[in-house]
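Hey team,

Filing this mostly as a record. A colleague (T.K.) asked me to run one chain through the structure pipeline before their review meeting, and I want the input and output archived in the tracker in case anyone asks later how it was produced. No errors, nothing strange. Just documentation.

Input sequence:
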Amino acid sequence: MIAALKTILGRAVSEITGQQSPDIAIQSPPSGFGDFSTPIAFGLAKQLR
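Output structure:
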């Protein structure tokens, strides 16, 4: 489940920021990004269920 959320979050991050490396974005998100990245990940996870 955690891995799935990381994958979903990584895709959301790469779509939002245009980055090609979602793993890097997860490990070192831009300042303030964490405030809305978690709701996005959980929102996408709910849609996939």
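Quick notes for T.K.: The chain has a mean pLDDT of 65. The first helix runs from residue 2 to 17.
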